[in-house]
Structures are given as C-alpha cells and as structure tokens.
Specification:
Blueprint lengths: L4 E5 L15 E3 L9 E4 L5 E10 L21 E11 L4 E10 L14 E4 L2 E11 L2 E7 L15
Parallel strand pairs: 1-3
Antiparallel strand pairs: 1-2, 3-4, 4-5, 6-8, 7-8, 8-9
Amino acid sequence: MGLFDYIRVEYPLPEGYEHIQDVAFQTKDLDDPYMAEYWITASGLLVRRDYVYEDIPEQEQVPYPPPFDGILFRQTTRRTDVYTEEDMQAHRDLLFYHCERGPGRVEAAPGKDSGVTTVNDWTMYEFIARFTHGMLEYIVPCDTKGKTIRYELPPK
C-alpha cells in the first residue's frame, strides 16, 4: 500500500473508455506521492494543481456522529475553487488506474487484452500516458503488469 497521487484526465481517453472519463484515477508513478492532484489537460499537458483551503467558521463545523465523536476531529478547513497550476514538463510514461465495483459495469473493449481486469466483481482500468518534452503523445490501455496492449494509435 502507501500513498498515491490523483490523476484527472481532460484529454479524451481511448474509444470505448468514455464511461470512466470523469473519474479520479490514481498513480504511484510520480516522485514522492502524497495525495496531490494532477491533471492531463485537454491540450496534453501534465499539470499539478494546488488548491487554496479556507477555514470553516466554528459555527459551521459539524461534529462527527457517534461512535466517532470525541475520536475524530471536526473538519476545520475546506477546499476552494481557487488553485495554482504547475506544468510538470513531463518526459516519461505515466501509469494510472481506476478500480470500481458493482454489477452493470460496461467492459471497455472485448477480449482478454482490453486494459480491463475483473476479479471478484472488481474491475481495474489501467492506462499508460506517454509524454515527450512536456506534451502528451498518447494514452493507451495496458494490462495489469503495465505492458502496453496492442492498440492502434490515433493519427497525429
């Protein structure tokens, strides 16, 4: 286990994966993961967003219900919509993934080599994003060992 970072993807995922476009993916591929939030922008940049937090006035703080009252602290800050953005100037492959549970999910692509693994009703979606000199070249599905699946890259 350990810490990870979040990846949000504005850039279109490969065809057949549109149903998970808006999820918060995870990665352990970036240096010193600490639950930071990164975005692959629609223009193909990898950026880190650092949000501004504000104090919650004491009269608006809600205590945790029993049995957690007295054990957990109240939430005293909240994230605002204000953030700074840092272009990571990525030059690397970045593995990111999402796991979901439940019936009625849609398999992204047919066949065993689809970037989709289902075990005990849990489905894992994995992708590799290739960045060269700060720009995204492509996003492709991969298998559970990070091996790129044979996939037709979109024309540039």
